[in-house]
Amino acid sequence: MNPLPKRKAPGPPGHFLLGNLREFRRDVLGLVMESAATCGDIVRCRLGNQVVHLLNHPDHVEQVLQKRAANYDKNTRSSAAIRAVTGESLLTCNGKAWKRQRRMDQPAFHHRQIIGFAEQMTTATEAAIRSWQGRTMLDISSEMARLTYSIVGQTLFSFNTGEDAAAVEKAMRVILPHVFGRLGNLVNWPDWLPTPANRSFRRSLAEVDKVVYRIIARHRRAQEAGDPDLDLLSMLMRVRDDATGAGLDDSQLRNETITFLLAGHETTANALTWTFYLISRHPEVESRLYEEITRVLGGRKPTLEDVPQLTYTKSVIQESMRLYPPIWIIERRVIEEDVIGGYTLPAGSAVVISPYALHRHPAFWDRPEAFDPSRFESPPPAAYIPFGAGPRSCIGSEFAMLEAQLITAMVMQSFHFDLVPGHPVEPLPDITLRSKHGMMMTPHPRSAQVRD
Is the pTM of the predicted complex or chain greater than 0.90? Predict the structure, then answer.
């Protein structure tokens, strides 16, 4: 019996040599959205000689990220680019190495561990809110980056970030565009070549490494002194290989620390930036949100026990992450040839899933471009994956949602924000979905005083 003929998925026309690379570099969000709208739920693109399939249906996403996840790994161009920052870490490794690392990291993100972080989250947010008093203008994207960096540093690494926050924020503005920019090139200069871009990248990464190795050294000293430390890094330092009895060396600890320090604060900061922007543009949402916060908190600082009652607050954040998912694209490599939706995916090709596009799929979302938090009063459809799906879904999703709810409640309890007139708002699809021009807003203090 002859095998069924291989079918090639439809896709946008491209250059005979470059494929769709020019469109990718010029407007990747536009390429993704237009391709999905005109070609359907499976789109074949070509970036140079790399075949890439965009999958934009929950059934196809489930096949790649869950049902046949073992056939799709992260030996991808995007992971290779990220590896230049994080090395081999939970974010980039595969197979047995990934399973081992996930097993080591998981205890720090157990529910009982995360709920203990709530007070540290609210204390850091209080400090940020105090620093805004009397200021006439804020770049909310910058303020959220510093706040979430402070929270990740304190909760996962018992580290007072202090002045490091500004240095790390500045470094990230170089590191992320550099990493994503390499994906739009047919050929990249080697990292060791002293081009201006490479030198700037290495300087920025060195600044972050300086912070990371200082955190590791502090934990080594605490470990030698026998201090009982229960954060993520101290847990990793205690882990021993079952076969050899060896622990992680400083290089391996560096890779995990930098992964959680950068990824753990960058994604939540972006989610919150877009949340406050959307609230400022929708007074009816802000009014209902403020009513809930006032009713539940009664003018005091939130506690962990308040979080389950802040249901509309959670819906606002979820709807924000629907429209502006921090992880806007997910890439995998096809290990063995597969068939999805009747189309052949060749071995060695790439598949990409874009939550940005999937979250706007008109078959699953009514008025997909509208900001309507009430849609999350019912369970969301399978087309909602802000934290990914399957075994490699975000390990810190519960941490991130707790942090985002507490910060949103406290900030909106204290301030009303207006976007500065004329300030441009444009999503910037780097490794995460940032705001290209920051988010300049005018803070207006609420009349009610927050009580402890």
Answer: yes
Contact criterion met (CB below 8 Å) for 357 and 322 = no
Backbone CA torsion sign across 98, 355, 410, 295: negative
| 21-445 is classed CATH 1.20.1250.20 | no
Is residue 1's pLDDT more than 90? Answer: no
- On average, the pLDDT of the chain sits at 92
User: β-strands 433-435, 427-429: how paired?
Assistant: antiparallel
For the segment 285-342, what is each residue's pLDDT rounded down to a tens digit? Answer: 999 999 999 999 999 999 999 999 999 999 999 999 999 999 999 999 999 999 999 9
pLDDT one-digit tens code per residue, 129-178? 999 999 999 999 999 999 999 999 999 988 887 778 888 888 888 988 88
- Who has greater pLDDT, 72 or 80? 72
**How far apart are alpha carbons 342 and 64 in whole angstroms?**
14
